[in-house]
Predict the 3D structure of the following.
Amino acid sequence: MLDTGVNDWEAKALRLLGLALLVMCAAWLGIATRPVGFLATIWPANAVLLGLFILYPRLATPGGWLAALVGYVAADLLMGGGWQLALRLSLVNLVFVACGLLLARLTPKRLRSLDSHAGLLALLLICLLAACCSALAAVLLGHWTQPSLYANAWDAASSWFSADLLNAVLVLPVMLSAPGFFSRLFDTRPGRGRDDLWEFAPVVTLLVAMMICIGMGGMGALGVIVTALLWCALSYSLFVTALLTLMTCVWLLVAVNMGLLPLLETHDDAARTLALRLGVILFAIGPLLAASIAQARSRYRQAPASDA
């Protein structure tokens, strides 16, 4: 009995340590890629933590929340930030995760799966509402406290809302669809062959479209990438499509920030950032919905054959 208790304690401690390290690494990635004096555009830590809590509810304990807070604060401290600022920003991050987790648990069971477009739309709504909550928390903790982190309340709200919504829309579909994808991938039942080179045509087309987009420039060039992503959505599973969409959108954000793809011309950095993030969000939703609908139709077509 004693050995069992010790082993349980060690297992819990290792889980909490792993959670803190994962959050710290994800937060460090966002901090390392942000410009000096600005908040990060790519901030996967919140979406990763929310995805973990949804997939593994036993992690969402008081110890798990404390480990996540330690991970957030440690990442900021390691990058040279002050502990008071790190704590305030970490609390805003946890507000998004807490609201998202609460909404996910209140969602009806039939809408908790991404196997249908209704489940994906429910997830997008959860991300939207959770981002609104984090925007409110950013105003309270980041603007109406001293010292203020923003010039005005609108900058605080729009910055956190767009950043949390963008990263959640890009990261959560990948995480939540991964278990089903890998379970089917290692399924030993006979299925269609995987040695057809034509299966790689959509992703190769996407890579070519990204290079063409850099060469063409302008808003019209994005249509080439959208077309390639839609072909991927109709050819691959939701997980693969979500992963390709994530990689494409990250590349798009990096290309715009580096000046390789000038899409917006404005002297207002806050307005430019908000417009860019919302544009990328809308850019990502289309392929995700197309993949979800295609996957549901494929499953329904196969259902009569399996029943027979």
Notes: The chain has two domains: 1-174, 198-302. The chain has a mean pLDDT of 83. The radius of gyration is 21 Å. The longest helix spans residues 269-307.
